[in-house]
Amino acid sequence: MPDLSQIVKAYDVRGVVPDQWDEPLAELFGAAFARVTGAEAIVVGHDMRPSSPGLSRAFGRGAAALGADVTEIGLCSTDQLYFASGQLNLPGAMFTASHNPAQYNGIKMCRAGATPVGQDTGLAEIRALVEEWSGSGAPAPAGTPGTITQRDVLADYAACLRGLVDLTGIRPLKAVVDAGNGMGGHTVPTVLDGLPVELVPMYFELDGTFPNHEANPLAPENIVDLQARVRELGADIGLAFDGDADRCFVVDERGEPVSPSAVTALVAARELAKHGGGTVIHNCITSWSVPEVVRENGGTPVRTRVGHSFIKGEMARTGAIFGGEHSAHYYFRDFWNADTGMLAALHVLAALGGQPGTLSELVAQYDRYAASGEINSRVEDQAGRAAAVRAAYAGRPGTELDELDGLTVTTADWWFNLRASNTEPLLRLNVEARDRATADKIRDEVLAIVRA
Q1: How far is CA 160 from CA 14, 34, 244, 319, in A?
Q2: Which residue among 255, 274, 296 closes a domain?
Q3: Per-residue DSSP letters for 335-358?
């Protein structure tokens, strides 16, 4: 019996292939997905990992055996799969492990309209069926098996994004794009084709072994090549995508990273102008600048926990037009509330190319405070150290504490958030202040307690 507790996470399936899961297990997941969703038809896509095509096909076979018609869209980014789920109004499954090492793979599942499937919305039932069938095998189909057909949706996906952000009238831009050998190398050329953007590709060869660097642009060491190339060429902007290209990270013309909070604020201002106001979701570790910019542009900011299920849940509840996270995930009502790094990148390109200044000058209005970035501390007693931090700041004059997501401590001049990792013995600290000296002081104060 496979140990599904090791691979079925809160929002997806993820593990080492073939040690923790393989094609026969993927076939059972496909059958269970068809049973739980009750779908007559589904759509399936996969990334460039060596194990992805086989796992994807096995999943499709399992779903078809239970009567679901399967549309295979083949190589795609995760947001391209969300597009297919939304456009075709079908439940979908994406085979990817995002930025994890090559030996990993996983499944991100959604219901029709790209509505996410997580533990509370079907994943627990899927796991239970797979566990049951692992011993006895999937039930024999009661009726006619479903069909399996192939369909290419890349051009339609690109047309959808280009219809949401008009770049045809911008000034010519030079953009260096680092795909990290991930799915950005597949999607970016088609999306930008024919636009006034000179594309300088880096690591566009699809290679799930990630020969150049890990496809996680939030880690500083993974964007050094991009930064150097932007400076060397005098480019206007640099863009880096993660392995499944649902996240996008931006560097300016100096090769300096642009905070995802600044990107969130910039895109929020554009979406608010487009929709004439509305609600914007942001998580509890985005910059103070995000709710400020939202209010300044006639919108209503709503703060939520970190994580796509919380963002998407709040977007559905409030009818929000946009949501952004400090992890460089960006969510759009016009894109079925799903996250798409490519659409956020188009917004940044449109904003940059719609005015004469540099990107650093443009984002300065959205990057207003000094931030620490996320600092991880390995501690065995997460709860105990977090409690010690809470005790140190509780009751201080002018200090507010909340526990929406971990511990957030706020004053008029600074705030910090301390959260426990769900998967590792880590405490994650984010600090922001009105000036660098204060940010550094609070950072050092909190870390002294955490690491005592």
Answers
A1: 29, 28, 19, 21
A2: 255
A3: GTTEE-HHHHHHHHHHHHHTSSS-
Per the DSSP assignment, residues forming a β-bridge with 313 are: none
The pLDDT of residue 126 is 98
Q: Residues 194, 195, 201, 203: is their CA dihedral positive or negative?
A: negative
Nearest of 270, 280, 290 to residue 369 by alpha carbon: 290
Q: What CATH number does the domain containing 81 carry? A: 3.40.120.10
Looking at per-residue pLDDT, the higher value among 401 and 218 belongs to 401
Structural tokens at position 417? 């958030």
Instruction: Indicate the SS3 state at residue 193.
Output: coil
* Domain that includes residue 328, residue range: 260-366
Evaluate if residue 1 carries a pLDDT over 80.
Answer: no
pLDDT for the residue numbered 422:
73
Q: Is the peptide bond before 18 cis (omega within 30 degrees of 0)?
A: yes
Neighbours of 24 (CB within 10 A): 13
pTM of the model: 0.95
Which residues on adjacent β-strands are paired with residue 324? Answer: 282, 330
DSSP for 44-60, written as a single string: EEE-S-TTHHHHHHHHH
CA geometry: angle 18, 85, 351, nearest 5 deg: 105
User: Residue ranges of the alpha helices (H) in 234-339?
Assistant: 260-275, 289-296, 308-318
- For strands 237-241 and 173-178, give the pairing: parallel
Neighbours of 274 (CB within 10 A): 14
268-315 pLDDT per residue, tens: 999 999 999 999 999 999 999 999 999 999 999 999 998 888 899 899
Where residue 436 sits, what CATH number does that domain have? Answer: 3.30.310.50
Q: Are residues 66 and 80 in the same domain?
A: yes
Domain total for the chain? 4
Question: Residue 79 — pLDDT band, cuts 50, 70, 90?
Answer: very high
pLDDT at residue 90, rounded to an integer: 98
Mind telling me the catalytic residues? 98
Q: Using CA of residue 418, residue 107, residue 47, residue 311, what is the dihedral sign? A: negative
